[in-house]
Amino acid sequence: xxxxxxxxxxxxxxxxxxxxxxxxxxxxxxxxxxxxxxxxxxxxxxxxxxxxxxxxxxxxxxxxxxxxxxxxxxxxxxxxxxxxxxxxxxxxxxxxxxxxxxxxxxxxxxxxxxxxxxxxxxxxxxxxxxxxxxxxxxxxxxxxxxxxxxxxxxxxxxxxxxxxxxxxxxxxxxxxxxxxxxxxxxxxxxxxxxxxxxxxxxxxxxxxxxxxxxxxxxxxxxxxxxxxxxxxxxxxxxxxxxxxxxxxxxxxxxxxxxxxxxxxxxxxxxxxxxxxxxxxxx
Length: 282
What we know:
Layout: H1 8-14, E1 35-42, E2 45-52, E3 58-63, H2 66-70, E4 78-82, E5 91-92, H3 97-106, H4 119-122, H5 127-136, E6 138-139, H6 146-150, H7 152-164, E7 172-174, H8 177-184, H9 197-209, H10 214-217, H11 226-243, E8 248-256, E9 262-267
Helix pairs in contact: 8-11, 9-11
């Protein structure tokens, strides 16, 4: 296994490093909820999926805000979300420590990771100002791409939510779907991109192989694109592995920003741990 991942014991300890008072496995906690969730940004909203860890109940829905899922009746204990969390005031080396680790792991697929600029640039009022603020507080200087700029609204939403409700950092965790799918594919690149039919078919097979209910995989809500739904499902797999104490942090150990928010992208655990028959829903 790639040295990026570290040994198993170290990874398990790192899974709860962001919540020192919590037990090693969130599943072991005697909390009120046994639900987990995955979120991916879509046009004007969030594609969300929820799964009960014990009985397999599940649903997929379109959420107007991240808080709408966080505060949903299921009150999910662990949520994987495809959005950067943790914004340094100054960025070195071409991106956050999590961005650099993710890009190193993805190799030729590294372009799917948009390096986050410094915090001030994320909160800039317009793209030109964001580029200038990013260059002023990065070494070597870099400016965010227009694709990166287009997700800053979601970044700001999650950042503001976590700073207003600090306890949520124990429930809301950054993931990257392409990292999740590559891990589920045995640390091998997928042959086709997610927007192609064969790429979607490959990702669907990986989600089934990871044990997600087929009825949840096919339960795409109206107004949600197939790729966004699959990305939310990949985030759900990571949330499950975080809850089980077997997820992999990138980097290990995670970084921290000035507000003590973790700077880490979580990935699924070992492939063998995620292999098995699909979960059967009641």
